[in-house]
Amino acid sequence: MYDAHPMRALRVLAAGAAATVAFTGSSAWTAPTRVRMTDDAVLFLPPALRSVIAQRHDPLLRGMLEPMTREDDPAHRPRRSGGTLESSIDSAFRDLVKAVDFHQPFGEIARRFGILAHFVADAGFPPGSGGPDGDRRYAHFAAFCESRRPKFPLVFYGHDSPALARGDVTGFAAAIVERARAQDSDLARAYAQAPSWDDPASFDDRSIPFAIASLSYSRAVTDVAQAWVAAWRACHGDLAGTPYLAPSTTKGTAR
Among the four residues 13, 14, 118, 239, which has the most C-beta atoms within 10 Å? Predict the structure, then answer.
């Protein structure tokens, strides 16, 4: 499972994460992409939670970035690839709710929101669900997403998640992994057909890799927002004013 203990200052952490990624060649989303993804997901939170998070931005990002230093651990890999990612998401969700229940400091709670976001984002990274074959595309696709991210239109797909509605966090995680696996099948064919991974025409803004990168980024932002709102609901947090959330679902539900 993941390591939930605080590690080091955000600036040092980001540098360490980048160095680890450079050494292993594996990173899922890059640190800059994860930072922007976190900020984009915050846009879809209820005002009460958004206010708490906005005042504790550094702990939130620390939680998102800390686990990058151990990105090759089984906690970051889905079950079909020999990992425990689905369980990591479930544990991060429950540890977040527990931190609120036990009145942990708001900085610690914000960090746990970041940890949950990290593992949810891992599940939605297409090459991460592709097994050993996906490993070859990990670093290239991560860097490609980072370089093209400013051109991605942000699309929010709503707060509806049947699995989260019934309290099935593991099922929520499994659905994300399965969606990413389907995306990676298309991505693998596009990479195989490219004359070279440096071929501009194979990776331009009209290419299949660009379409999958843009779609998977928006899906990941949506997944993170869904997980955060579900956790906040489980904590009986105030959901009033949540963007795109139906009024009938703003009341807290049993865990």
Answer: 118
